[in-house]
Every structure is written in C-alpha cells, then in structure tokens.
Design a protein that fits this description.
Strand content: under 5%
Mean pLDDT: 89
Strand order of the largest sheet: 1-2
Helix content: 40-55%
Structural class: mainly alpha
Order of helices and strands: HHHHHHHEEHEEHHHHHHH
Largest sheet: 2 strands, antiparallel
Distance between the termini: 53 Å
Number of helices: 15
Low-confidence stretches: 396-404
C-alpha cells in the first residue's frame, strides 16, 4: 500500500455511513472532507467529490487501502458501506434483485436513497461527551433505506429536508458530499447552496445545524397510530439488525428476511394502485386517511403524466416509496397486516383480490410488480399467479408505450 495512514483517526459510530465518517474525520483532523477523500483514495481533491458508488461498495483493493489510511480494520471499513446491508435488505441484495452498479440503485423504485438521506435530529445531537459536542452523532446507514421512517429510540419521524433551505439532507450535485472542499462546516450542518450559482468560495452555503429546528412534534396525536408506527419501526429495525432473525413470516411461511422486504415493497405498491381495497387492513383510521391521501396524489400524477403524453411510463409513480415518512409508515403497516393475515385461506383471498383490483386499474404496472425479481413464491401464489420455476426468467419488461 502506497498511501500513508492518517496521523489520527476515529472509531466508527454505530451503523455509521461512509459519508458521515468522512465528515466527522475531517472535522476531527481540521481539514476538509475533500482532503480526507483524496487521502483515502476515494476521489481527487481537485474534483472535491466522492463518487456516489463509494457510499455503496468498494473494490477489495480500495477497501484495504481505505482501511489502512483511516486506521480501521477491514470489518470496520466494510461496515461503513451500504452494500453489506443487502444480506438483509432485498433491494440491495445481488442474488434476489441483481444490480451491476450504483446507477441502478439511484432510481427511487429501488427503495434506496443514494443521493440523499434521512435523519433524526436527536441522533445527530449525540451525547454531551467531548467528541459528541465536537463532531455530532452518527449519520446512519439505515437512514438510506426507505423502510426506515422513524427513530424508535427518540420516538420521532425521520426528517428528509433542511428546515431552513428545504434541500434534501446530504444531497450533492456531484458525489456524496456537497462543498466537500469546505473545511469550516460541522458534520451536522447543511451543506446545500442557497442559490444555484453558489460556489463554496462565495460563502452562500445554508449552514443550518440539522440538530436544530422543530423536533418535538409527536408522530401523531392519536396514541394508537403512534404506538403502531413505533412498534412497526422496531420490528423493521430488528429484521435489519446483524443479529436479527434469518427469516420472517410472509403469507404464513418463513422466507429470508431480504426477500420479506421485497414482498413488503410489492404489496405496498399494489395498495396504492387498488386503494381503497386494502382499507380494512389499515390498523387505525388515521393510517387509512394517510394512505388515501397518498394514493390520490399518485393517481393524479399518473393521470397528469398520461395527459401530457399518452405513451409515458407511469410505473415508478406507484413503485417508488412515499416522500413523507408518515405515509411510508402507514403503507408498510398495512402491507405487513396483509402479509400476516395471508396465513389462512381468507387472508390469501384478500391478497388475491388486492392483486386483481390492481390489475384491473393498472394491468401492466401490476404485472411488473408481481414479476419483480426476488419476491417470494408464496406471495406470487397468494396473488393467484403461477410460481416460477428456479432459473425461469420473468416475463418481458413493459415498453414505454405499455407501461401505463
């Protein structure tokens, strides 16, 4: 290895992402994130950017070099990347839903946020220790997964935008850290430009501390809704945990955890297409109203898109995760209820009816969802569809003219 190790480094925090680690290490060493990225071989200083793919995975040579420079073990360095989460999270899993590069994971239908992240203000506040005050808390890898919508520890919904400039958190025009050459910002400060022509030398950077702002609003004024969403996020966190169970129950049968998340995603999309078909499965009236509003907005977007261009593809409008954490929790809760209930004939009939209603409303989109690589055979069977034999290719993907 030709690169010289840094004179001092940090121990990664729990579930910390590579972007968060670089931000904290830059602040700790008194230099810019661009300098740290350059030293670790993650990007050239003159470009002041780390490629989006470095957040996801690194080659074995890069991984070893970065660990050497940052004074980390191989396991610690790998633990900063998103790709290892694919062992438990289907949209990142190579075997269940193959991907060949980061570009394929930037589409929202993948239910992965690569170009920005969510966050919990209180988690970023960290503790009152010297390092906590100086560097802030952990920018968690899990916040990049769309199934994370709340912080179970602090009992709050996650945030996505800066409270001042409303830019998505950690969104960069190039790479994964905006204004990476700027060394005076705290790891918890918003790095977004407040004007599109802004450069880091102009000083017109938002700079708002994301630990500030309104963070005391409860998830919901309805205790039943609040308890359901927090319990759901707790169950999801357990499934994503390294020490979590290897399987989860889908339609009455144990399936690999990674596959279970693909089942959840598929049923969530069908809920939006066929709503109000799944209304009886909503745990509370509040959650039903949230889903109803989200479904209405998606249908309107689809109609507007088709009005502008009759052949426009609209599948992703129903496949992508909601933009509001509350709506994410609501649809995942209902999808979980449907998968749990499908352990008997009555529950399987409800899932079959859900698919049939979706197919009547949006036939091509619904078939595309059912043909998603990696969803469990038991879910396809519950939809009333034939189970594909191992090695059988799914049906041809819809063309732009068909995807409506």
């Amino acid at each position: 290895m030709n690169r010289r190790p840094l004179s001092r480094s940090l121990v990664p925090l729990d579930d910390e992402s590579l972007a968060g680690f670089v931000l904290r290490l830059a602040k700790y060493t008194g230099c810019s994130p661009a300098v740290i990225a350059d030293r670790m071989g993650l990007g050239q200083y003159y470009r002041a950017a780390m490629p989006v793919g470095s957040l996801l995975t690194l080659s074995s040579e890069q991984l070893a070099e970065c660990a050497h420079v940052a004074r980390l073990s191989h396991a610690e360095m790998e633990g900063l990347l998103l790709a290892p989460l694919g062992r438990r999270y289907g949209p990142l899993n190579h075997q269940l839903w193959p991907w060949s590069g980061p570009q394929q994971l930037t589409y929202l239908r993948r239910w992965v946020y690569l170009r920005n992240t969510q966050f919990c203000s209180r988690c970023l506040t960290s503790d009152n220790s010297v390092f906590g005050v100086l560097l802030g808390g952990s920018w968690k890898r899990r916040w990049h997964l769309a199934v994370s919508f709340a912080c179970a520890e602090h009992r709050r919904l996650l945030k996505r935008n800066c409270p001042r400039c409303q830019h998505p958190a950690q969104a960069a025009r190039a790479g994964i850290i905006e204004h990476a050459a700027e060394e005076d910002l705290h790891p918890t400060q918003c790095r977004a430009s407040i004007h599109w022509k802004t450069s880091s030398k102009s000083g017109l950077i938002c700079g708002t501390y994301l630990t500030d702002g309104p963070n005391n609003a409860p998830i919901s004024s309805d205790p039943s809704t609040r308890n359901e969403l927090l319990a759901l996020q707790g169950r999801i966190d357990t499934l994503l945990s390294t020490n979590g169970p290897d399987t989860a129950a889908s339609c009455g049968q144990p399936v690999p955890v990674a596959q279970y998340f693909l089942d959840l995603r598929a049923v969530a999309a069908l809920i939006f297409i066929s709503w109000p078909q799944a209304r009886p499965s909503a745990v509370t009236p509040t959650l039903a109203r949230v889903i109803s509003g989200e479904a209405t907005r998606r249908r309107q977007r689809a109609s507007d898109t088709l009005r502008r261009a009759k052949s426009a593809p609209i599948g992703d409008i129903f496949l992508e995760p909601p933009t509001r954490p509350m709506a994410t929790g609501a649809v995942l809760s209902t999808a979980e209820q449907l998968l749990n209930a499908a352990c008997d004939s009555e529950g399987r009939a409800a899932l079959a009816e859900l698919y049939q209603q979706s197919e009547q409303a949006r036939p091509t989109v619904s078939r595309r969802i059912a043909d998603t690589p990696g969803i469990s055979p038991v879910l396809r069977s519950s939809f009333g569809l034939p189970v594909r034999r191992p090695g059988t290719r799914p049906r041809r993907r819809a063309t732009a003219q068909e995807a409506r």
